[in-house]
Amino acid sequence: FKPFILFLFYAKPLVLSSSTTTINSSPGTMGGDLRHFFSHVSLCLLVSLLAVKTNSSFTPADNYLIDCGSSAETKLPDGRNFKSDQQSVSFLQTDDDIKTSVDSIPVSDSLPLYLSARIFAGKSTYAFYISRPGRHWIRLHFYPLPHPLYNLTDSVFSVTTETTVLLHDFSARNSSSIVFKEYIIYASEKLSLYFKPHKGSIAFINAVEIVSVPDELLPDSASSVPQAPDFKGLSSFSLQITHRLNIGGDLVSPKIDPLSRTWLS
């Protein structure tokens, strides 16, 4: 890293789940007037390298890493250990016990997390106890592995939390690439991920990450895109991370980034 390089990431606010009937500014909800919310669909945040260095010794209070469907613990090149399916079964509520795994996939530089998956024929839930309320990363990994009875490339499903729609009628039809989704959401006491297959379809997941976010990582205000007055009250929003760019620098991998993130050059 070079000192004072600026990092840029794009994030977009998420919609509330259909079960939520009110919108207010309390933590864990989208906050603010709905029209005001949709006028700031893209948020551009600049974070200095100094902030990244500040977090180099950060130890997350909550750090749930699950390699779904895996028969053994999985260690990534960045040093993180993902629990096996058996080690994490206490977090899962489902009527199904459907798993699949392969020795390899036709995707270069893919992580071992994509070699196994959990399949859900009905609504299923991962529920996590939150030891320290605050912002949390939700990272979801998808790759449609083969299964003798279920075609994962044809699956259509939704993923939600108690308050927020993460994915609606999602499908991973392209077996030539992995799908990685990342969010920042406020959580307190418990955070649940609900997987709901479309009628007549299935849902699946390869890996799940629920990790505490450092309090100082994100400011409460950000510049809007397109140009407009600064947006304030960011801490009350749920965000989806869409891009991270290392402006003027090289690619930064999770092995280098102290918070296990990837920054494109």
UniProtKB/TrEMBL annotation:
It is a single-pass type I membrane protein. One of its GO terms (molecular function) is transmembrane receptor protein tyrosine kinase activity. It is found in: Membrane. Residues 66-264 form the Malectin-like domain. This is Putative receptor-like protein kinase. Keywords: ATP-binding, Glycoprotein, Kinase, Membrane, Nucleotide-binding, Receptor, Serine/threonine-protein kinase, Signal, Transferase, Transmembrane, Transmembrane helix. Residues 1-17 form the signal peptide. One of its GO terms (cellular component) is membrane. It comes from Noccaea caerulescens (Alpine penny-cress). The keyword Zinc does not apply. Pfam families: Malectin_like.
